[in-house]
Amino acid sequence: MHATLWVFGYGSLIWDPGFPVAERRIARADGWHRSFCMRSIHHRGTVASPGLVLALDRADGASCTGVALRVAPGEEAATLAALRERELVSSAYLEKVLPVATDTGVLEALTYVIDPDHAQYCGGLALEEQAQIIARASGGRGANRDYLWSTAAHLAELGIADPDLEWLAARVRDLTCAI
Q1: What is the reported pTM?
Q2: Total structural domains in the chain?
């Protein structure tokens, strides 16, 4: 018998979890907001030219809607190992278990949140500055703009509104047409 493992996805885990998912539920983490507040030096940028990736940043009164993903039974240990390799590559994320609200109640979900004391933390960048970085950066997992566009598209598909991501997606399209 395996303990049920839920993972909260708010960015690429929504569309590329990298583990077998048995169930998906729309979920909300209160006290956190989705933000391009982490400089990416591995997956969507480089040390010389960092990109930006999403993280959950602590904010009173905020909430982030994403997806709770239930790991397929028997895959918990392998999933945890794979997530740690992927998400903790530079230690800018902290691994937390957070309560997330769903239609059927509150779940405890493994969640990766930003460490605001880490050197890669860059909270508070203006949206235009974020767009300029995202339009040009690329790393080991591809172009930063593709990460943004895929996340924005999947959120829209799920009916999850995120005005900042929607603005960024449109602005980055404009910028890349001009490049």
Answers
A1: 0.93
A2: 1
